[in-house]
UniProtKB/TrEMBL annotation:
S-adenosyl-L-methionine binds at E52, D77, D126. InterPro entries: SAM-dependent_MTases_sf, tRNA_(Gua-N-7)_MeTrfase_Trmb, tRNA_methyltr_TrmB_bact. Gene3D superfamilies: Vaccinia Virus protein VP39. Belongs to the class I-like SAM-binding methyltransferase superfamily. TrmB family. Catalyzes the formation of N(7)-methylguanine at position 46 (m7G46) in tRNA. Signal peptide: none annotated. The keyword Glycoprotein does not apply. One of its GO terms (cellular component) is tRNA methyltransferase complex. This is tRNA (guanine-N(7)-)-methyltransferase. Keywords: Methyltransferase, S-adenosyl-L-methionine, Transferase, tRNA processing. It comes from Zunongwangia mangrovi. It catalyses: guanosine(46) in tRNA + S-adenosyl-L-methionine = N(7)-methylguanosine(46) in tRNA + S-adenosyl-L-homocysteine.
Length: 224
């Protein structure tokens, strides 16, 4: 994408009421205005809150919001020019149960209060295979502890990925740390049983992997 196009999207994001783009200072300084208040100040209802981490263009956030109008969804990514797509669709379709937050996932516990979140989706994360990149892997111990902090006690995490490495790494870690694996499938379009929302919504990256014939995997788990 050209820089002119990106600038246009950044500008348009600023006009969308469903996009929140705090500076690092706003997020980490004195209490961030939406922390603990996403229901009352942002959605203005008391529906459960579901996050999509690394939402890219926001296909899951928008798709799930359409499928589950009784829940609220927030797509999170550091790249605003990507989620512009999802935000614009949500504006055009007048959807009031989906929003987008531009931040680093590392700062997620500054953005949400304890017990504020019911569910998390991690969709096609960069697997960060190199040892030096381990700390950026979105299902490592440190991230799981951050998710646990903001999730309700019975809150669940969904991981959908094409990366066999990420699938195996996460399953191993979950078993090793004694978390609760609720469901796992290493080829969701071949092995029956994956929930409808797993096979029924496809992201930008997923479509590229499917064209290459890669299996798509899925795990649903609870952090102990
Ligand atoms: C491989 S893409 C997948 C995007 C989308 N979920 C999809 O399936 O099309 C990974 C996304 O995660 C975002 N991302 C990666 N690490 C992040 C971090 N630490 N904080 C915020 N966003 C991050 C990237 O900007 C990118 O949009």
């Amino acid at each position: 994408m050209g820089s002119k196009n990106k600038l246009k999207r950044f500008k348009e994001n600023e006009t969308f009421s469903n996009v929140i783009q705090p500076t690092r200072e706003e997020l980490t300084g004195a209490q961030f205005q939406y922390k603990g208040k996403w229901n009352t100040k942002f959605f203005k209802n008391d529906q459960p809150i579901v996050l999509e981490l690394g939402c890219g263009k926001g296909e899951y956030s928008v798709g799930l919001a359409q499928a589950f109008p009784e829940k609220n969804f927030i797509g999170i990514d550091i790249k605003g020019a990507r989620f512009w797509r999802g935000a614009k669709t949500a504006v055009e379709e007048e959807m009031d149960n989906v929003g987008f937050l531009r931040t680093q996932i590392e700062l997620i516990d500054y953005a949400f209060a304890e017990n504020e979140v019911s569910e998390i989706w991690i969709t096609f994360p960069d697997p960060q295979i190199k040892y030096k990149r381990t700390k950026h892997r979105l299902t490592n111990t440190e991230f799981l502890q951050k998710y646990k902090k903001i999730l309700k006690q019975d809150g669940v995490v969904n991981l959908k990925t094409d990366s066999e490495f990420m699938h195996g790494y996460t399953l191993g870690l979950l078993h090793g740390e004694g978390h609760e694996v609720l469901y796992a499938n290493h080829h969701v379009y071949k092995n029956e049983g994956a929930p409808k929302e797993v096979t029924g919504i496809q992201t930008f990256y997923e479509k590229q992997y499917l064209e290459k014939g890669k299996p798509i995997t899925y795990i649903k788990f609870r952090i102990k």
